[in-house]
Amino acid sequence: MTNMANTIDAAGVPGASADANSDADLDTAALTHPANVAIRNLTIRLGANTVIENLDLDVLAGEFVVLLGPSGCGKSTLLHSIAGLIDVSDGSIEIAGEDMTWADPKDRRIALVFQSYALYPTMSVERNLSFALRINGTPKAEIARRVGRASEMLQLGPLLKRKPSQLSGGQRQRVAIGRAIVREADVFLFDEPLSNLDAKLRTELRRELKQLHQRLGATMIYVTHDQVEAMTLATRMAVMRGGVIQQFGTPAEVYARPNNLFVATFLGSPAMNLLKGTLETRDGARFFCTAQVRLDVSAYPFKEAPSHGAPCVLGVRAEDVHITESASEHAKVSLMEPMGNHRVIWLDYHGEQIASIDQTKAPFSEGDTVAFSFDAAHVSLFDEASGARL
Q: What region holds the ABC transporter domain (predicted)?
């Protein structure tokens, strides 16, 4: 295991005079040196447990990649291995084309933002920002330049003389992010940095993080279990389960065309509606059929032509379940959840609960019978046995 003293260096950051750069233009290009990250055949064992096995991941320079998954899926372990806080059992980690598999954290040119802010309580914001630069012997003028620009970017100027106890949770997290920025790192790593904040602050800082990435153009790898954070922040996202990347792609791709049932149900609120049935071929057309449903899926882009009668699962997002008087299917409204600009309508459909996102504000109530239809152009079909996308 690597020396934890080096961990502080890798996560720490600068500080100095706030006034030195107050009148200077913010040169964000000088604050980051985006690098690609290439992970090959990575295996991590903790004791007798294999947490990650033979994992490959390519992060392009300047990307914002989010590692998304439930607790225990290996996402934080993967992030910590990139940071050098966890020794790997096999495989390699390259940063900017250089093998960093066994490099100390301080030599990896990374900056890490923790879930807990990890600020020094007796130091001012300015001293927290400058700490790592000071202990590394960075010249005072350079410290002032970096701290001045980072504090301007994060609107920390008025707070530089305060102690962490005098800051709100959002301000503390800004300081933690500022400590990372001043390192002028190749790769920024975020370990669930917004988890300790309330809903309003999470929304605000999420927006600020996205804007920060746009301004810096930095390579960022971000761990979260929150699908909203992943969908809004990522240029690409890796959905993980059991130490395996289930799907890696843009948020739009992963949401619209999930690779398997796990991805389909993990993303989306409410989760994707699922119906079990069979695929039947009649007169050259293909249909998804249950005892109640017969949906034409002839235009569906199957990877391989399924056999007649093959058992499968139909998945359809709530926004693709349309409540309309002209529809052929009927169900009883079992529950309505007002969401402000829309309602989630839960339909009791032959014992199955089907969610529909409704923006019409039509005057119906719980217990009413309504007509609805599935949008066949936006359904997903999965093999019932393996859960893989057909």
A: 37-267
